[in-house]
Amino acid sequence: MTEWSQRGLLMPLNDLIDSGAIDTSGIADSIIGSGMVGDDVVGISLDTNSQVFILDADAFEAAGIDLPAWDWTFDDFESISLQFAEQGIWGIGYGIWDDANIKAVLLSTGQGSGSTICIISN
User: Fold this and answer.
1) Where are the domains positioned within the chain?
2) Where residue 91 falls among pLDDT bands split at 50, 70, 90?
3) What is the model's pTM?
4) With contact defined as beta carbons under 8 Å apart, do 59 and 18 qualify?
């Protein structure tokens, strides 16, 4: 959006928001902020999402591995995955070919910013 805005291709929405023509009262400031370039709102996200993990509690129980705490970290995830791997069980089933997902994970952990992310699958 920054490039398009700087090239004059996006109309600032500030006046429409201020007048109430676009009602943003139910939208979090952080979402509005994600569509700003400088002081101008030039876009409003249609949706937000997050990455999630779905756990198979029965598989954890069968493997004798405790379920993670609600606030588990990627270090915890790695440790749990290795515990499964030691038993010959895959710790994750993941659509790694969809590189948007792995990029989101890497960027959320501070990796990949300003660099090329290379994904090798076999």
Assistant:
1) 2-41, 49-91, 96-122
2) low
3) 0.43
4) no
